[in-house]
């Protein structure tokens, strides 16, 4: 609704105001057509966002009266070692999961693009992890990484290798959590890369072939540059998703985040603060910090990838 | 046409404004709660929170009240708090979980003080420490106990016997009187059977020891006491379990835990009465091999819940009659038979439903251990911020378990983090 109220006067131009007002109203059908999105966005997006920002400046236990505390929540945030630890965990998990995810996805997509038979089946198979229930998958992964009866340790034992207490060790937790993210998102990114690959004109490849370029040269000189916008999209989507990692560690190692709080991501810390410690105001401040972090990273990604492609 | 456009736009604008103001006004605490106008008595609880036959019987027993029971799934407290804030469709009677009650006590004015509707006549029937949990510092009682979770030592008789440890419950009770005894027995067990650490998980053990005490992390004067001896003792005992390698590092509920219960590699569980259900579910081959003995160093409570009447109830006295009936000793015994909901009324322990021998426990009568435990649970003051302050200790103990931090470094970290959380909440 804000848009309908503020946008029209800008388009009003220079002629006499009476007529202009009428012309605004004459667009009502378009506003009506757009309104479901804006109404839903206002109720479920804008309003919660606004109240979260408001909450970040208050102290509230969820039921009692709210108390305005100014920047106190943010100053706590700066000296809260657990918060910084959770940020570090989130970033490490983000790198550990996004890099392999995108690398594997790109490789798979290139392979799939040149494959001829059973394409549809491969695509479905790759996409299935993405639509699997996150909690069910996390329980499954926790079982795979179990110390005594887990699949991975059974495999190591069968090979005569030493086993590892995956979910009891700081690095084991990070590996288990990122393995699950890789599993879940690789197929999704593969399908997107595949769509990008199929949009590259075949003439370019034919020309490269005529010029005598090998498969590697073709990949780095044609495929990758052509895919840049698609890569930008997947990197930004992965950033937004990766910085909000929550369910995987929560189900696999519990709300404390396991050994050394290694699985405590910022969103998990936010969840604990709000819904376990009933400290909603402070949780609001954490939520805003995640929001700012996502903005920052998206901007960095954008600059890096866009900047290079315009060279 | 002109007119209809205007009306339409004005109408939709008004709808948005109404929605926005509706939302924001509903966030105001307390004010504008609507009384239940339908004549139904809305009752909320979580799945398995109340016995089915007891519930059906209660609904039939109060036909005039039109009790409307709703089973609320998911995060119960979160849904209750949201509804209380929302101001509409608030239940008249609601379940409150034991782990949430401390954080709800500061909001006691959202609930009916049961003493004002005649609770004094029945409160004596319930174990005292449980009623205390639902009592504010100024003496208001906001909940009547549904059930309690007195702890016991559940153990594998066959694993103990094979390792040369006492296996008869009476002998186990005699030899494993304290945590130190248990850790010593653990060393013996480890020698005979290295695959069966006597402590399932040191962080779980730490929680039990804290629950056994009369002091926790914050005292009644809102002072931080999480760095004092009673906490340090629990910490040191748990660290000892880790360093002497009698800690299995298998937290309750994990796949390893479930498999271990069945295969004998998790030979003991120190847990509340309701844990018996989990053990039975996991240990299909363990029928007849499990036994129950008293918790080393005395019983603690874990879990257990309440029924409360919200300020929304149009007739609190009538609502109280319903919960009084629903939670009477007779019905508590029935609820135990229904769904192993452990009664909060000692009178129920004498009923035949609880006196039955349990073939899973080799014909032992678990109430013989759990009944006395229920009576001896210590009374501790639990601050609303208690669980928030407890979290860093468990997290730090996990680091000791993983071997990534020394006990001393982890302890320092836990204390400073807990202090930090306390400071934010106004704890001195």
What would you note in describing this structure?
The complex is a heterodimer of chains A (311) and B (428). Chain A has 311 residues and is mainly alpha-helical. Chain A has helices spanning 2-11, 17-25, 28-55, 72-79, 81-114, 119-131, 134-144, 151-158, 170-198, 202-210, 215-242, 247-253, 266-276, 280-309; strands at 58-59, 67-68. The model of chain A is unreliable at 1-15 (pLDDT under 50). Chain B is α/β, with parallel strands linked by helices and 428 residues long. Helix content of chain B is 48%, strand content 9%. In chain B, strands 2-1-3-8-4 form a five-stranded mixed β-sheet. Chains A and B meet through helix 3 and helix 13 of A and helix 1, helix 3, helix 12, helix 18 and helix 19 of B.
SSE topology:
The complex is a heterodimer of chains A (311) and B (428).
Chain A: H1 2-11, H2 17-25, H3 28-55, E1 58-59, E2 67-68, H4 72-79, H5 81-114, H6 119-131, H7 134-144, H8 151-158, H9 170-198, H10 202-210, H11 215-242, H12 247-253, H13 266-276, H14 280-309
Antiparallel strand pairs in A: 1-2
Helix pairs in contact in A: 3-14, 4-14, 5-9, 5-11, 5-13, 6-9, 7-12, 9-11, 9-12, 11-14, 13-14
Chain B: H1 2-26, E1 41-45, H2 52-61, E2 67-71, H3 76-86, E3 93-97, H4 98-104, H5 120-123, H6 128-133, E4 144-145, E5 151-156, H7 157-162, H8 169-175, H9 179-192, H10 202-212, H11 229-243, H12 255-263, E6 268-272, H13 275-282, E7 290-293, E8 305-309, H14 316-326, H15 329-339, H16 352-355, H17 367-376, H18 386-402, H19 407-424
Parallel strand pairs in B: 1-2, 1-3
Antiparallel strand pairs in B: 3-8, 4-8, 5-6, 5-7
Helix pairs in contact in B: 10-11, 10-18, 11-18, 18-19
CATH topology of one domain in chain A, what is it called? Answer: MetI-like fold
The averaged pLDDT of chain B comes out at 88
Query: pLDDT under 50 segments of chain B (min length 5)?
Result: 1-37
Structural class of chain A comes to mainly alpha
**Helix proportion of residues of chain B, in percent?**
40-55%
Unreliable spans of chain A are 1-15
For the termini of chain B, the CA-CA separation is: 68 Å
**What is the CATH architecture annotation of the largest domain in chain B?**
3-Layer(aba) Sandwich
CATH level-3 fold name of the largest domain in chain B: D-Maltodextrin-Binding Protein, domain 2
Largest sheet of chain A: 2 strands, antiparallel
What does the largest sheet of chain B look like?
Answer: 5 strands, mixed
Strand content of chain B: 5-15%
- Strand portion of chain A: under 5%
On the 0-100 scale, what is the average pLDDT of chain A?
86
Count of beta strands of chain A: 2
SSE series of chain A: HHHEEHHHHHHHHHHH
How many domains of chain B? The number is 2
Assembly form of the protein? heterodimer
By DSSP (H or I, 4+ residues per run), the number of helices of chain A equals 14
> Could you give the count of β-strands of chain B?
8
Which structural class matches the secondary elements of chain B?
A: alpha/beta
């Amino acid at each position: 609704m804000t848009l309908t109220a503020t946008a029209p006067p800008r388009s009003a131009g220079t002629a006499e105001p009476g007529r202009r007002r009428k012309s605004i109203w004459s667009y009502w059908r378009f506003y009506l057509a757009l309104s479901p999105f804006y109404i839903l966005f206002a109720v479920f997006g804008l309003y919660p966002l606004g109240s979260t920002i408001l909450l970040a400046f208050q102290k509230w236990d969820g039921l009692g009266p709210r108390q305005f505390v100014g920047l106190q929540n943010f100053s706590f945030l700066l000296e809260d070692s657990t918060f910084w630890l959770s940020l570090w965990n989130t970033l490490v998990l983000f790198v550990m999961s996004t890099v392999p995810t995108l690398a594997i996805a790109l490789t798979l997509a290139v392979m799939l693009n040149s494959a001829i038979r059973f394409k549809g089946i491969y695509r479905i198979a790759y996409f299935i992890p993405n639509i699997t229930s996150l909690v069910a998958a996390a329980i499954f992964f926790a079982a795979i990484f179990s110390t005594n009866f887990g699949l991975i340790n059974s495999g190591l034992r069968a090979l005569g290798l030493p086993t590892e207490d995956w979910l009891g060790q700081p690095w084991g937790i990070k590996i288990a959590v990122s393995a699950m993210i890789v599993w879940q998102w690789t197929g999704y990114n593969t399908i997107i890369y595949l769509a990008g690959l199929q949009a590259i004109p075949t003439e370019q490849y034919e020309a490269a072939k005529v010029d005598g370029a090998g498969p590697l040269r073709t990949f780095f000189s044609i495929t990758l540059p052509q895919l840049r916008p698609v890569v930008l999209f997947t990197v930004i989507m992965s950033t937004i998703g990766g910085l909000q990692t929550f369910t995987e560690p929560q189900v696999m190692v519990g709300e404390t985040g396991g050994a050394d709080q290694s699985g405590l991501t910022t969103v998990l810390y936010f969840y604990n603060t709000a819904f376990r410690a009933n400290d909603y105001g402070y949780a609001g401040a954490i939520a805003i910090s995640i929001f700012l972090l996502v903005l920052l990273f998206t901007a960095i990604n954008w600059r890096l990838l866009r900047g290079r492609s315009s060279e | 046409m002109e007119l209809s456009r205007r009306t339409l736009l004005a109408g939709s604008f008004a709808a948005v404004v109404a929605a926005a103001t509706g939302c924001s006004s509903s966030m105001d605490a307390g004010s504008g709660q609507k009384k239940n106008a339908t004549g139904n008595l809305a009752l909320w609880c979580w799945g398995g929170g109340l016995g089915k036959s007891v519930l059906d019987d209660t609904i039939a027993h109060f036909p005039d009240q039109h009790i409307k029971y709703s089973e609320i799934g998911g995060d119960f407290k979160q849904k209750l708090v949201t509804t209380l804030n929302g101001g509409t469709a608030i239940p008249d009677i609601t379940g409150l979980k034991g782990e949430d009650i401390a954080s709800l006590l500061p909001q006691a004015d959202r609930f009916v003080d049961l003493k004002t509707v005649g609770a004094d006549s029945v409160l004596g029937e319930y174990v005292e420490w449980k009623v205390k949990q639902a009592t504010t510092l100024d003496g208001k009682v906001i909940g009547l106990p549904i059930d309690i979770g007195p702890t016991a030592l559940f153990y594998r008789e066959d694993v103990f016997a094979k390792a040369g440890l006492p296996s008869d419950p009476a002998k186990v009770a005699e030899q494993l009187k304290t945590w130190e005894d248990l850790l010593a027995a653990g060393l013996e067990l480890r020698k005979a059977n290295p695959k069966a650490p006597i402590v399932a998980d040191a962080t779980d053990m730490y929680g039990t020891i804290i629950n056994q005490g009369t002091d926790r992390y914050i005292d009644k004067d809102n002072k931080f006491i999480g760095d004092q001896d009673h906490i340090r003792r629990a910490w040191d005992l748990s660290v000892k379990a880790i360093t002497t390698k009698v800690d299995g590092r298998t937290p309750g509920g994990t796949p390893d835990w479930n498999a271990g219960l069945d295969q004998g590699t998790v030979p003991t569980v120190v847990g509340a009465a309701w844990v018996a259900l989990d053990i039975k579910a996991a240990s299909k081959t363990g029928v007849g091999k499990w036994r129950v003995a008293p918790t080393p160093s005395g019983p603690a409570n874990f879990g257990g819940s309440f029924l409360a009447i919200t300020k929304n109830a149009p007739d609190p006295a009538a609502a109280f009659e319903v919960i009084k009936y629903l939670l009477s000793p007779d019905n508590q015994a029935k609820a135990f038979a229904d769904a192993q909901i452990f009664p909060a009324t000692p009178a129920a322990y004498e009923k035949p439903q609880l006196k039955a021998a349990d073939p899973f426990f080799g014909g032992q009568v678990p109430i013989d251990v759990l009944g006395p435990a229920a009576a001896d649970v210590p009374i501790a003051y639990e601050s609303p911020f208690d669980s928030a302050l407890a979290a860093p200790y468990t997290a730090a103990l996990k680091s000791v378990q993983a071997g990534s931090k020394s006990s001393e470094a982890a302890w320092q970290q836990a204390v400073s983090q807990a202090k930090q959380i306390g400071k934010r909440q106004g704890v001195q």
